[in-house]
Amino acid sequence: MATLERPVQKGALPSEIERRLGKLAQVFEKDFFDLTREKTIRDHLARLKKTQAIVAGCETDVCVLQSCLGLLELGYEVYVVEDLLFSSARNVEPALVRMRAEGAVLPTYKSLYYELIAAVEGGRHATKMLAALGPFPDDLPDCAIS
Which one of 8, 108, 123, 139 has the fewest CB atoms closer than 10 angstroms to its CB? Predict the structure, then answer.
């Protein structure tokens, strides 16, 4: 699932992200910084019947922070992929500290990737997960937070 701020003046979803999300992904526009304040998004999340959310995105100190707080308030376990965040602000450390303090977990992409592979029946289906996730990318930047 991906969200875009309305009005979508900053551009559509980048084609590379859209391609990687696949045909089953939903793209939502939102009027609020906190995605959980949008009824259509809350309804979509409820239909998924999941208890965990993995978050990556932009404006770490605004949209990501407020969405994480909203997801936590709804009872989700929230995993914020720290090296897949960015912001126009120079200092997002207070937002990261707040997310952690409220209960979000901030793994790196690499840690989360291998944790997901190992989690499927104790790693017995690692081949299946590798097929679903693809190989670990070797071209990730050291850090996307800026």
Answer: 139
Q: What are phi and psi of 72, to 5 degrees?
A: -60, -40
pTM over 0.70, yes/no: yes
Q: Among the CATH numbers 3.50.50.60, 3.30.420.10, 3.40.190.10, 3.40.50.850, which is that of 2-108?
A: 3.40.50.850
Q: What is the pLDDT of residues 75-93, one digit of tens each?
A: 999 999 999 998 999 999 9
Of 99, 100, 81, the C-alpha closest to 143 is 81
